[in-house]
Amino acid sequence: MHEQDWLSARFAEHRSHLHAVAYRMLGTTAEAEDAVQEAWLRVGRADTSAVENLAGWLTTVVARVCLNLLEARRARREDTAGALPPEPDRPRPALRPVVPEDEALLADSVGVALLVVLDTLTPAERLAFVLHDVFAVSFAEIAAILDRTPAATRQLASRARRRVQGAAAASEAGRSPKREIVEAFLAASRAGDFGALLDLLDPDAVALEIRGAHEVAAFFAGRAQGARVALVQGVPAAVWWHRGGPKAVIEFTVRAGKITALAIDTDRRRLAGLDIVVLPVAAR
Questions:
Q1: DSSP class of 282
Q2: E strands, the chain, in order
Q3: pLDDT band (50, 70, 90) for residue 220
Q4: CA–CA separation, 56 and 14 (whole Å)
Q5: Are the CB atoms for 275 and 166 separated by under 8 Å?
Q6: DSSP code of 253?
Q7: Measured between alpha carbons, how far is 227 from 281 in angstroms, rounded to an integer?
């Protein structure tokens, strides 16, 4: 068999696995198909005579293509939220470690929630987690793709794993009356629905230096276009994401079904210390 024909046959043999890698990395079927096709073009131009583990090598090629696409995607992202003023500081709680038996469950059963969380990771964190925890690629191999040390790559995967662990818990922890109120508030804010905002706010509601339901509703009407519901320190809140990180967090105080206070934090150093898990849109 001609070498190119042999290579084509081996690529076809591994194609479903390569597509699975690309899909977990990129989050859409169309982008995964594009990545696999680009990988095939690269494979066709490469010298494979010294390759001993073809499956592992093909996985690496697809991972490099996906990393480039994730970095390009991140560079294109635009900030859709308006600037919001800062507020104060909070500690970060310790999380229990993920045991190996949990990893396949996290990878395969979280579904949409997992993909939402993966989209908030940096490209390097996403690659490290997907390749190691989902596809059992060694940290040494991943380090070569990222041009980092195995120890640094292990840390990237660990940070990503905490997010995914939170997503697994979020399916239960995120279901609460408070989450429904936060979602309703964000929906009304995006739509500029002043009446709906008033219905959600306590008459004496406070946000920053703004006091009174009418004033708070006027401030937030039309301002939540880029906001998403998240668990912040395990509590439903709202978060603005930009270039893989949180730009602003709004925490809600709710009493008797009404929002009495909104605390807004935009300090990057403080936000980096919070445990934030973005939640998928709740089914209606």
A1: P
A2: 201-207, 210-211, 227-232, 235-242, 245-255, 258-265, 276-278
A3: very high
A4: 10
A5: yes
A6: E
A7: 12
